[in-house]
Amino acid sequence: MTVTYASPSSLPDTSGSGRAKRDVGRAMMFGAKGKCPSCGTGRLYGKYLKVNPSCPACGEELHHHRADDAPPYFTIFVVGHIILPIALAVELAFVPAMWVHVMLWTPLIIASSLLLLPPIKGALIGLQWANYMHGFDPNAIGDDQPAFEFGPDTSKQ
Ligand SMILES: [Zn+2]
Fold first, then answer.
1. pTM reported for the whole predicted model
2. How many domains are contained in the chain?
3. Which of 16, 35, 36, 118 has its CA 20 to 30 A from that of 102?
4. 106 alpha carbon to ligand 1 midpoint, in Å?
5. pLDDT 10s digits, 102-134
6. What does the pLDDT read at residue 14?
7. What is the rounded distance in angstroms from the CA atom of residue 149 to the CA atom of residue 8?
């Protein structure tokens, strides 16, 4: 079943900030599915983890995301908490040789990490988009410009 949404996942502004409130859960779900957090139809990724500069369906700029190291961090967290208890249970139940552990867990860890990275990164991009983080805020100063600079004040000279 294909679900299409006529409007972007935006709700009426209730914060008084002049920006439409965005549904965080829905944007994160779209991102986890590899879809644009705004419209839910365009593809988020061009390649495996390469985010499209803009949504091919609605044109929403997606290059503003700053997922950085967060997706690997959460992937390691999730994979570790799934695999480690299983590995300990297998060790306690069967006491297999070390090479059995290596042959079991190495491919499982690599495969599950590669499978989890795209949805976790997509959910984080959806979170950033829904909260107007980084360049997703239309009122923000450009990505390349810092909001303020340290150092001596040179404006009074
Ligand atoms: Zn879109």
1. 0.79
2. 1
3. 118
4. 37
5. 999 999 999 999 999 999 999 999 999 999 998
6. 56
7. 35
Domain residues for 65?
10-136
The pLDDT score that the predictor gives to residue 6 is 45
Is 147 domain-assigned?
A: no
Secondary structure (DSSP) of 32-80: HTTB-TTTSSSBSBSSSS-B-SB-TTT--B-TT---TTHHHHHHHHHHH
Residue that wins the pLDDT comparison between 6 and 52: 52
Backbone φ and ψ of 11, nearest 5°? -115, 165
Give the 3-state secondary structure of residue 98.
Answer: helix
- Ligand 1 mean position, distance from CA 47 (Å): 17
SS3 state of residue 151: coil
114 CA distance to ligand 1 centroid (A)?
A: 24
**Is 32 among the domain residues?**
yes
Q: For residue range 64-98, what is the model confidence (pLDDT) as tens digits? A: 999 999 999 999 999 999 999 999 999 999 999 99
3 lies in some domain: no
56 alpha carbon to ligand 1 midpoint, in Å? 7
Whether 80 maps to a domain, the answer reads yes
